[in-house]
Amino acid sequence: MAPPARGDHEARRKDVSEAVWRVLAGKGFGGLTLRAVAAEMGVSTGMLTHYFPSKRALVTHALDLLEQDTAERPRRTPPADGLPAVRAMLLDILPLTSAGTARNRIWVSSWDLSLADETLAARQGDRYARLRDRFRPHFETGRGLGEIPPNTDTDQLTAAAVAFAHGLVVQALFDPGRFSKDVQIAMVDDFIAQLAGLTPLTG
Question: HTH tetR-type domain: from which residue to which, for each copy (predicted)?
């Protein structure tokens, strides 16, 4: 089959991406295959090979779509910088809504594939590094405002905050009855409150 013309290729790309997203939402990364995407679109798997010549290419595109969806999601406006901004960012990560739950389920389902592939693992590592980079300035501001001890290692505190958020995500996904929306918010508030009186995390 000849590859599609450039105009057709660009016109179909959005359709392909939307089909990939629908498969992710319904089946997670475990169910993401060329056959599943082709069935979702009502086309042959051969057509999709013009877009995704390998399973890795398909998964890489799906991860990019997921990162885009995560970046474009509605976000809270914090009442102030520093720790209030950290709180807002933590709440934005958690599965507090149906959309947030679906997004987190897809992210968690991607970990197994990424851990088994060095290239995908490196890309995931870069994503989490960028997430820490977005948290760090707010902790530095909080330190400047006296919200946390002056000798706090903000790099280590940033890593702890991201680890806390993702640990809570996993628990909420697997035990939503125990970790309801109210419980998750309360745990974030406890975490933020503890930061003000934390034992300094020094370098």
Answer: 10-70
Mean pLDDT of 10-32: 82
Render pLDDT for 94-119 as a digit per residue (tens, 0 to 9): 999 998 998 899 889 888 888 988 99
Domains detected in the chain: 6-68 (1.10.10.60), 74-196 (1.10.357.10)
- What's the pTM value of the predicted model, to 2 decimals? 0.82
Distance CA 107, CA 97 (A): 15
The CA angle 151-153-157, to the nearest 5 degrees, is 130
Within 8 A by CB and 6+ apart from 153, the residues are 200, 201, 202, 203
Convert the chain into a string of H (helix), E (strand) and C (coil). Answer: CCCCCHHHHHHHHHHHHHHHHHHHHHHCHHHCCHHHHHHHHCCCHHHHCCCCCCHHHHHHHHHHHHHHHHHHCCCCCCCCCCHHHHHHHHHHHCCCCHHHHHHHHHHHHHHHHHHCCHHHHHHHHHHHHHHHHHHHHHHHHHHHCCCCCCCCCHHHHHHHHHHHHHHHHHHHHHCCCCCCHHHHHHHHHHHHHHHHCCCCCCC
